[in-house]
Amino acid sequence: MLMQEWISRSAQETFHLGQKLGTMLKAGDLVAFRGDLGAGKTCCIQGIAVGLGVSDPSLVTSPTFTLIQEYQGRFPIYHFDVYRLTHEDDLYDLGYEEYFYGEGVTLVEWAERIPNFLPAEHLAVHLHIETDQTRYAQLHAYGACYENLLRNFTPLGSA
């Protein structure tokens, strides 16, 4: 497993790091986000969406109560927030396999709540609050295609 670390010193930097990552994602990719409340998961996902061709980042909001939100970029973008998921098995009711193994890019907030459902190959982003503005992130590549992605990803503010 390949791992990369970076430090973001502002929400704008977190957004731009996500945007750069978004330009590198392709149909079928899944990015699993972990981190504390307020760590910047949604901000990073807004950047990814813009990197994938969504023109207005304000349209990208965390689907806390709906569990999934879909956006259209270069490919469909499936944004999951599983924070309020009562049981892992509730993912079956959402038809998660169509999204996780589909033709779009899947972004999952609070992925630590559904470890048994994540594909073996995915990119994991762990965000940690350091200060009010500073975030520490680790990107973990599970699988050869994600290792290749990380080898070619040079974010600003690397740790």
From TrEMBL:
Entry GO terms, CC: cytoplasm
Location of the protein in the cell: Cytoplasm
GO molecular function: ATP binding; metal ion binding
Domain of life where this protein originates: Bacteria
Biological processes annotated in GO: tRNA threonylcarbamoyladenosine modification
Alphabetized UniProt keyword annotations: ATP-binding, Cytoplasm, Magnesium, Metal-binding, Nucleotide-binding, tRNA processing
Principal location: cytoplasm
Family statement: Belongs to the TsaE family.
Protein name according to UniProt: tRNA threonylcarbamoyladenosine biosynthesis protein TsaE
Species of provenance: Vecturithrix granuli
